[in-house]
Amino acid sequence: MSDADAVDAELAAFEAGLRDPATFPHAAHVRLAYEMLARHPFDEALARYAAGLRRMAARAGVPERYHATITVAFLALVAERRVCTGAATWAAFAAAAPELLDRRCLARWYPAELLESDVARRTFVLPPPHAA
Known about the structure:
This protein is mainly α. About 60% of the residues lie in helices and about 0% in strands. It has one domain. The longest helix has 18 residues, at about 40-60. The N and C termini lie far apart (about 50 Å).
């Protein structure tokens, strides 16, 4: 099996909700977000990525763990970094955007209390505006 075939199989398992959250660390989330964005326009990648996360959480018996704001904001950040870095491979991307491998990377835009809110979990919430 080629590397591309292996990634396609991994994406298919993710989209089907077959990944075990206990063996799906943050770095794996980043990699699959990168790979999905490499294959689909942002809106389609977002729909597929969110659906995969929802299925995975539901299959694990914790559907409430899906977090809309983190999903949308994080995928947008990966998409932006993909374009800005021009990284053509996952390895190049990980080297060019190592800050995304820190699961706290959204703290730069979102206060913890906002991300911990039920509203942010249920629907996408913009980060608070910064003083000019």
